[in-house]
Amino acid sequence: MRKYFLTGLAILLPLALTIAIVTFLVNLLTAPFIGIVKPLLARYDLFQNGVLVLSGEQLLQYGSQAAILIFLFCLTVMLGALTRWFVVHYFIGLGDYILHRIPLVNTVYKTSQDVIKTIFTGGTKSFKQVALVPFPHRSTRSIGLVTREEVTGSNGEKLVAVFVPTTPNPTSGFLMLFKREDTVFLDMAVEDAFKYIISCGVIATPFHPIDGEEGTVAVSSDAVSK
Question: Minimal CA–CA distance to 193: which of 134, 127, 137, 148?
């Protein structure tokens, strides 16, 4: 019975996690527009009677979200095609030039632009390496993703910028600065680190310190807090 339960759990957990993440993203993308689209669809009484176990209100909600997603998809494709045109590219460059020179706005815009380019540009790696760091306490270890290897502290000491994601949702976390001697670089791929974090440590990929990069702390895969 225990084996059957664990087998079923191994099948259901990835499915449940996928549904939860997709639901979160759908709600995030459709929330700004649902107040406009939902009343428009309600005028036509298309979802008044409901279908099967879904009520009319639920169908209206899901239908509105589907319409918004289709609209956003078409809008994204259209914008992608238009940016290839010289004239549109020119006006985008002009708008970028203006936004970079508006006080306060330029700071937010430039920061957002740099973050998006870092994450989505194919030639740039957002996370350079996987590391083991003393977080949240000196006596514990957490899996972290190195974003910058050379950060100079206020007293001139060399620090390493590490993003420590939360589990099982790695889209949130903590950006920490650690001393290099406290940071243990691992021979683990970034993709394997994400699998390790999202699965709450169930999918464990063997890892070892990179030769010559060990910190002063002892390293063991059993000591990882993620």
Answer: 127
Q: What is the DSSP letter of 132?
A: E
* pLDDT surpassing 50 at residue 225: no
Q: What are phi and psi of 177, to 5 degrees?
A: -110, 120
Asked whether residue 167 carries a pLDDT value surpassing 80, the answer given is: yes
Peptide bond preceding 168 in cis form (omega within 30 of 0): yes
Query: Residue 46 corresponds to which tokens in the numbers above?
Result: 């298309």
Q: Global pTM? A: 0.45
Give the long-range contacts of residues 167-173, CB within 8 A, separation 24 or more. Answer: 167/197, 167/198, 167/200, 167/201, 167/226, 168/17, 168/197, 168/198, 168/199, 168/200, 169/21, 169/198, 170/194, 170/197, 170/198
pLDDT in tens, 102-147: 888 888 887 777 766 655 554 445 677 899 889 888 888 888 989 8
Q: What is the C-alpha separation between 34 and 67, in angstroms, rounded? A: 10
The torsion of the CA quartet 104, 106, 107, 110, rounded to 10 degrees, works out to 160
Q: Would strands 173-179 and 129-133 be described as parallel, antiparallel, or unpaired? A: unpaired
164 contacts 176 by C-beta, under 8 angstroms: yes
- Per residue in 10-20, pLDDT (tens digit) is 888 888 888 88
